[in-house]
Batch of 4 targets.
Target 1
Amino acid sequence: MQTGSDVMAQSTYPAMLSMKKVHRPVWTVATLLLIILATQWVTYQGSAYATGSSQAAFSPAAPQGQDDPDLAPESQWVIGPHDALGMIAAGATLLDARTLAARKIWPASLNALPVHWQDFSYKAFQDRGVPLPAQEGAGILHEMAVTSERPVIVLGDWAEGWGEDGRVVWTLRQWGYRQVFMVDGGHAALEKARALGKSSTLVDGMAHQTSHQLPAQKAAQPAQDVAEVSTSQVRELLDHEDIVFLDVREPREYAGATPYGESRGGHLPGAVNVWFKAFLSEEGTLRSASEVHNILVRAGALDASSAQESPMIVVYGSGGFRSAWVAGVLSHYGYDVRHYAGSMWQWSDRPWFWYPLVTASR
C-alpha cells in the first residue's frame, strides 16, 4: 500500500561486471562473497525470534463489533476507570507502568506495583523489543506476587506516555495471563474517578466475592489474542498484498529519521502511517470504534468502499511499546491484528539487502 511519494532509499546495486574482463581472481572473490552472504542469511534466519506461529500469522479473522459501542466481552482490552476501581476493590492486582519521572510527579495510590515494560524483554540491544519466554516471565511475575488467578489492571500515562501500559498488557497476555486490562485515560482518569468516589454498577457490592467470581471475569472474559510475528515472518508477509502494515511512529520516523535508536531509517515497504496518539481524543481517552475505523480508512489501511472483511493488520513501531498499545486498541475493537514486537530496532539491525526500508518526504 505504498504511496507515490515513496522512494526506495537503499536499493542501490553494484554495477554489472564485464564478462570479458573477469579473470580467475575475480571469480574467486565473487565466490567468497556469495559464501559470506549465504552465511549471513542463515545466521539471521536462525537468530530471528519466531515467537508467533506461522500458521497464526497467515490466518485472517473477521473483525467483530468495530462499529458497535457495546463491545463483545471477549474483545475488551480497555476498561473504564470506574470499572477498574470496582475490580481493584474486589481484589484485582494494580500495576503502574508509567515512567519513574511520572511516578515522582504524581505518585500512584491504591498499592500499585511499579513495573517497567523492558523488565519483561530481552536485554540485547537489537532484540530489546522482544518479550522474554513465558516461563521466564512467569518467574518474574511470581516474585511480584502477580498471579493469573486474579485480574490485572495496568496504568499508563495517556497524556505524556508512550503506550507502556499497552506493552505490559500485551506481554502478560502473550504469557497466558488472560485477564489483563488497560484503563481508558490511564492513571489520571483512574485518580479522577477515585476522587469523585463513584464505582461502576458492574462491580458494586462485589468486593467480597471469591477470586473465581471477580468482576473482570464477568465484564471481560478472555480477550482476543494479538499474536506476535517475528522478523522472519514479517519478511515473508511483505509479499502478501492483502496484509496491511501499520507504522505507528511519528511521521518523521516513518519518513526516515532515527531519533529513537534505529540502525537505519525508513519504514517497511508498503506500510501506512498513523501516529499512535491519533487514536486518543482531545480529552486523552480512547476514540470510539467509528472514529478509529475512519482513521484507518483515511490512512489507507482500510478500503471504505470494499464489502470484504477487514484485512490482517500487522502493527509495528520502533521498539514495540507504542505498537503494542495500538495492537491492543485495534483488537479491542475487533480487528484481526498481529504485533511485530521486535519492530524497527530489530528490522533495521538486519542486512539492508534482505530487510529493506523505504524513505519518503512527509
Target 2
Amino acid sequence: MYPDKNISSFNCTTCNLSKMMKTLFKGTFPQPNRKVETIHMDLCRPISPESISGKKYFLQIVDGFSHIVWIFFLTNKSECKDYIKSHINKVQRQTNSKVANLILDNGSEFKNTDLQNFFKYKGINHLTSAPYTPEQNPFSKRGNQTTVNKSRSLLLNSGLDLSYWAEAANTAIYLENLTLHKSPNFETPFSKRFNKKPSLKFLHPFGCEAIYLDKFSKNKFSSRGVEGVFLGYGEGHQMFRILDLETGKVKTTHHVKFNDFLFPNKSQKNLDQNTEYFVVSGSLDIPTNSQTNCLDSPETQNDLELSPNDQRKDDENQNVTTNAL
C-alpha cells in the first residue's frame, strides 16, 4: 500500500500519544569503590496516623558501598536539611572518607538554598533523579517500600497499634543491616561497613513480653519487675526500648527479661494460630537480642561484666541505626 515507506521506522503521533509508556531503564547503577562515596536519600511521604512521638515522615539514607541504612523520623519536611547536614558530617568523621555523590529526588525538601550551599561547600556532587523514575535512585526508593512492608509485618505480628510504626520501622532497619545482602559478596551491610561479623545474641521478636527492673519499687515486698512490650533497640550500650503497659510510656533500659513466645497485645486465638511461626522466628540464629544485653537467665555480676574491648565492639554494633523516635 505504501511502497516508498519503511514500516519498521514508521512513527505515528497518534499511536505514541495513545500508547505512551515509561521507557525501560537499561544498565546497572555504578558501584562505589569506598564507604560513603555515594549516598542515596529519600523522604517517605506523610504517614497517618502520627507516631507516638508525633512524627509524620521518615528520611532513609543508604550508603551505596556497604548498603547500610540509617533512618530518621521527622515531624516536618523542613527538618530534612538539618538531619542531612548532621549525618554527612558524622559519617565523614567516622569513616575518614569524603562523600562524593549524593543522589536525591526532586523533592522540595532537598532543593532549599541552605542545603545547596552546604553541598557546594563540602564539594559534594548533587545528583537528582528524573520525575517518576525511581530506577535512578534505586536504593532509597525501593528501600522505602521495603521498610514500610517490614514495619507493617512487625506491627501485625505484634498486635500493637499503628501509631507505633516508627518503633517498628526503626527495628526493621536494624534487622535489615544484619541481614545478608546479595550484592556484592553476599555480606551483611554491618559486615561491609565495620569489617566484622555482627553480634546476633540480643535479638528478640518485636512486640514480645518484656519484664524490666523497677528501680523505684515502693518497698521491699513490692514487685521488682514491670510488665512491658519490647519495641526495639535504644541508643547507647546494650539498651532496649520497652513500652510500659501500665503507664503507656516508653522506657529505655538494660535490665530486661524476655518471653519470646508471648505477645501481650495479641489475642490468645491469634497467638495459638501463629505458634509455629513464632517458633521459626525464635530459631533464626537469634536466641537472644541483637543490640542490647538481656537477662534471660540468672547470672552473676562477673558474668555480666564485659572487657573494655568487648564493650566497645558491642557499642558499635548497637549504634548502627538507632535514632531518636
Target 3
Amino acid sequence: MDEPEPARRSRALIALALLLAAEAALLWAAVVWLILELLTDQPTSFASALAILALTVIAALWVSAIVVGTLRGRTWIRAAAVTWQLVQVFVAIGCFQGLYARPDLGWALLIPSVLVIVLLFARSVVQATSRREP
C-alpha cells in the first residue's frame, strides 16, 4: 500500500523552527547557568533564586514544546509563539532603558522576536499550521 508523502516544509517554517530552537537552547543554557550559580554562589534570597530557576525551566519547556509543535505543523503554535515573542519584546524594551540599560541584550532579544513574528504570519507558515490536527 502506498502511503502519501509527508508535505514538504517551507523555508519559512524551517527558519521559524530554527529560530525557536535557538531560543529554546539559550533558555536551557540559562537553566544550566542558574543551577551552577545556585550551587557555587550564595544567593541573597534562596527562595527568589529557586523561583527564577523554576520560571526559567518552565519557559524552556514551553519554548521546546513550541518547537516540536512547529515541526509537527500544529495549529496552536502560532498563538503560543506570538505570546512568547511579545514577552521577549517587552523584556527587550526594558533592556534599552534604566540605570542598568543593556542595549546589546535588548537588540539580541528584539531582532529574533520580530523575525519570528514576521515568519509566523508568512503565508506558507499559516498554511502549514492551519491543518486540522488528527
Target 4
Amino acid sequence: MRYFGIKGKLFTVILITFTLLIGIILVGSAYYFEPYYRSKKIKNLKEQMVVFKDQNLGSKIYDKELLLDRMKAFSDQNSSPLIVETPDNELLYPTDNFIATLDSDGQSLLVDLYYPIVDMLDKGVKLNTGLDIGFRGFWENDKFIAIYLSELDGKKLESDEEIDQLEEWQDLETVRGKIVSYDMPKYDSGYIYRQETLLYLIDKYEKNSKKVILYTDNATGIDNYLVKISHGKFTVYSIFTTQPINELLSFMPEFMKYVIIVAVFLNFIISLVITKLIVRPILEIRNTSSKMANLDFSERILIKSKDEIGMLSEDFNLMADRLESTIQEIEYSNRMLLNELEKEKQLEQARKNFVADASHELRTPLSIIQAYGERIVDKYHFDDKFDKYMAVILEEQRKMNKLIDDLLELSKLESLTYKMSLDQYDINEDILEVIDRLFAIFEDKNLKLHCNLADKGTITADREKMSQVLMNVISNAFKYTPDSQNIWIETVNCGELLKVSISNEVENIDSIDLEKLYDRFYKSDKSRSRKMGGTGLGLAITRMILNLHEMEFGFRKSENRIEFYFVYAFFDTQTVAPLV
C-alpha cells in the first residue's frame, strides 16, 4: 500500500476545507445574495421613508418647494425616487429639466425633452448645437412638450404607433429645427426608469392596502417593489428595483472565474505554508525517533517555539536523554550479567566434569571391591557373621554403583546434547510392565492398587526414557505409601491430550515441599529414605526427560494424598494447562 504521510493528509484536509469554504461562499453568493440584498434594501428604504415622513410631514402646513428639495435629496441619497401624495390627491415628485432650444425658421422654440430623452440616449443620439432634429408632441403654454423623436438630420424616423393611437395624444404636433442650446442634467437611465415605473405602480395599486407590492416588468424581467407608508392624509411612495442587482449578477459568472482562480491559488499557497509550519517539526521528531530506534542517540530536536510542538520536542529530548542513560545502564548490567553467566557456566561445567571424573574414579575401586568381595564369598566361608558382613559390603557397593549411574545419566541429560530416539508405542503397556516388576513390593506391603487405563494410549516418545520416568515415579509411590494404603494409576484421554496420573496416600503430607521434590538428593524423611533405598536423583532425571519431551508435568497434593501427572499432546507439543 502506498505511503500517505501526515504532511499529505494535513495538506489535503486544509485544501479541502478551504475549497469547501470558497464553494459555500460562491454558492451563497449565487443563490442567497440577491434575496438577502433585496430584503435588506427594502428594510433600509422603509426606515429612511419613516424618517423622511417624521421630519417633513409632521405639520399641516408645509412648503412645497422645500419639500421637493428634500425629496430630491432623499432620492439622490437612496438612489430611489420618492413621491408624496398630498391630501388633495396631488402627486409631488422632483423632476429634472431636460430642455433644448431650437431655431425653427428663425423662430426660437423651447422644447421639454423629459419623455423622449430615455429613448434618444438609448438609441445613441447625442445632443449638439446645430443638430437638425424634430419631435412629435404638444404645446403647454410657451413650451413644447416632446413625446418622441420623429426626425434626425433631416430624415424622418418611424413613428411610435402606440403613442399616436392613444386617445389623449391623437392631436400631436410636430416641431423641427436646429439645436441652439440645451440644458441636460446628468443622465441616469435607471433612475428615470424607476421613477416612471413608480408613477405607473401608484396609479395601478393606489387602492391596494399592502405596504410592499411586487411587480415584475414583463418587458425587462426586472422585479420592482412598491413601498408605501401612510401618514395622516399624506401617503409616501418609493420603489426598489432589482435592476442594479441583475446587472451585478450578470457579471458574476465572468467575475467568479477570476475569483476562483485566485482563490484556488491562494488556497494552495496557504495550505502549503500551514502544512510546512505544522508538519516540519513533526518530521524532525520522526527522523530523530527513527535514529533512536536504531540506538543512535547522537541527535536532539532543535526547539524553535514555545507552543505545543515545542513542548513535545522538549519532552522528546528529555525522554531521549533518559532512554540513552537507561540503555547504557542496561548494557552495563548485561555485561555484568554475561560475566556472571560465564562464571556460572564455568562452575557448572566444572561441576559436571567433577561428577564425571569422580564417578569414573569411584567406579574403578568399587569394581575391585565388588570383584574381591564376590570372590571371597564364593571361595571362603568362615562363619555366618562373615557372610552377613560381606552381604552388607556388596549391597552398599551396588547402591554406590547406582548412584554413579544416576549421576552420569543426569549429567548427560543436562548437557543438552542428548538425542532422543522417538518411537510410537502404547504407554499403557509400559505402565503394566513397571507394575509387574514392582509386584514384590506391592505384595510385601499389602497395597491397594487402583489401575484405570484409557483405551487409547499410543504416544510418540523415547520409550526407554519414558519407561525410566514411569519406573522412578511408580516405584516412589510404592515405596512411600504406608502399608495397606491406596495407590491410583490412570491414563485419561481428553481430545488431543493424554494425561498420565500416579497418586498415592502418604504420611506427614505437610512436611513435603513440592518445590524441592525435583532437587538432587532431596529427602523429606531422611531416615525413611535411607531405609527405602534410592539415590535422590530419580525425580531430577524425570524432570529433565519430560522437559526434553516438552510435556506439561507437576505435583499436586490434597489432605493425605500426593499426585504426580504429565500430559502428552497428540498433535501439538506446546505447553498446555494441566488437566484436573
